[in-house]
Amino acid sequence: MLSIKRFRAAFAVLAFLFACVFAGFANEQVKQVLTGFDRAVLLIGFILGAGAASRWIANGSVRHLGSGKLRA
């Protein structure tokens, strides 16, 4: 049976994969404008942010959004 935890985990994986695809697309779009080092920094930062966002989704921290408390 599909539980909310499995749904959140699947959604987190899909969100991370979509973010990685978008990061690659954005990296190709700025190829003419930025240097290689700047593009690498941008790509690494975007992937780290996507990982943090997917962990946040998987933890179910949406319930604690307004309270200012996050689960450890």
Give the topology, please.
Blueprint: H1 4-29, H2 36-59
Describe this protein with a few key phrases.
72 residues, mainly alpha, 2 helices, 69% helix
Task: Describe the 3D structure.
With 72 residues, this protein is an all-alpha fold. 69% of the residues lie in helices and 0% in strands. The chain has a domain at 20-55. The radius of gyration is 15 Å and the shape is elongated.
* Structure class: mainly alpha
Provide the gyration radius in Å.
Answer: 15 Å
Task: For the record, give the distance between the C-alpha atoms at the N and C termini, rounded to a whole number.
Answer: 27 Å
Which stretches are poorly predicted, pLDDT < 50 over at least 5 residues?
A: none
Q: What count of helical segments does DSSP give?
A: 2
Global outline? elongated
How does the major sheet shape up? none
Percent in strands = under 5%
Helix content: 55-70%
Concise synopsis of the structure shown:
The protein has 72 residues and is an all-alpha fold. It has a domain at 20-55.
